[in-house]
Design brief:
The chain is α+β, with helices and mostly antiparallel strands. It is built from nine helices and 15 strands. Helices cover about 35% and strands about 20% of the residues. α1 crosses α3. Keywords: DNA-binding, Transcription, Transcription regulation.
């Protein structure tokens, strides 16, 4: 079996395009197509569905790629060791992440990793746009919620948890709410979901385990969570945000948690990357740092 052709197939499967894969591999599209055609002939099965817009794996092709990808990663690792090449993280790691998570967690983490591994570099795209990792040349992404792209490796990280916070100054002036209903008498600040146009509901877990939603009659509304934290620090009102966004402010006392017995809202977070990045030393150090969960 032609291992180069197998590598080419994996690249096409990730890119969903002969044109894109050929550009990434530095070969002609016709040469790529012929190599995969020979692989299909050798195996006696059709591996790809081809049409004018894109390509996709057949059931046989999906099974073949799922079994071959770990083997290819193992071969690459063996090649590095036999060649006595250092497996130190090096080169550019291009990542995308939601804006606030990127600023609060990923930027400090990247700085620490670069100090530990001087040959490692980062290119960070911090926004909430859902990028195509292969098409746009990303190594990995931090994504929240369920991961539906079966082509990608998705490693679950510590879930994101919501906390409700206010500044000591606000609490000194207005007191701290003792119940969810008491929020009606407080200044609650909110974020508007730009897709639905609705304010994002707050959620609390009651003593019986049921989730309780609360829609703030907010006198101040933002389009993202970043200025929401700034407003809370300024003492304007109470906010509900993800814990990582205010970890430093809670630690040094600039913000305080309220309604702590009713916390419980969570959202899944995953590190997502193409299978071809599985054996990459730079991906390993990033995954290890994120999986440590001390953020």
């Amino acid at each position: 079996m032609d291992l180069n052709a197998v590598r080419m197939l994996v690249q096409v499967a990730e890119a969903r395009s002969f044109t894109t894969a050929a550009g990434q591999l530095g070969i002609s599209q016709s040469g790529l197509s012929r190599a995969i055609g020979r692989l299909e002939s050798a195996l006696g099965v059709r591996l790809l569905h081809r049409n004018t817009r894109n390509v996709s794996l057949t059931p046989d092709g999906r099974q073949f790629v799922e079994h071959c990808t770990p083997l290819l990663c193992g071969l690459e690792d063996a090649e590095r060791k036999l060649g006595d090449r250092p497996c130190m993280p090096s080169g550019v790691l291009k990542l995308t992440a939601p804006s606030m998570f990127g600023r609060k967690v990923l930027v400090p983490m990247a700085g620490k990793l670069m100090a530990e591994h001087p040959q490692l570099q980062f290119e960070l795209v911090l926004n909430d746009r859902l990028v195509d990792l292969v098409e746009e040349g990303f190594d990995a992404a931090l994504r929240t919620g369920p991961i539906s792209d079966v082509r990608m490796v998705a490693r679950p990280l510590r879930p994101l948890r919501w906390v409700t916070v206010a500044s000591p100054g606000y609490i000194a002036r207005h007191g701290a709410p003792a119940t969810v209903d008491a929020l009606q008498d407080h200044t609650c600040l909110a974020v508007r979901n730009l897709r639905s146009g609705r304010l994002v509901d707050w959620q609390f877990r009651l003593h019986d385990g049921q989730l309780r939603e609360f829609t703030a009659a907010a006198p101040m509304v933002f389009d993202s969570g970043d200025p929401l934290v700034d407003a809370a620090l300024a003492g304007i009102g109470i906010v509900q945000v993800m814990d990582f966004a205010v970890a430093d402010a809670l630690a040094d006392g600039r913000l305080q948690r309220v309604l702590q017995p009713f916390e419980g809202r969570e959202r899944a977070l995953s590190l997502v990357y193409p299978p071809s990045r599985q054996a990459s030393p730079k991906m390993k150090v990033l995954a290890d740092a994120l999986l440590a969960g001390d953020w």
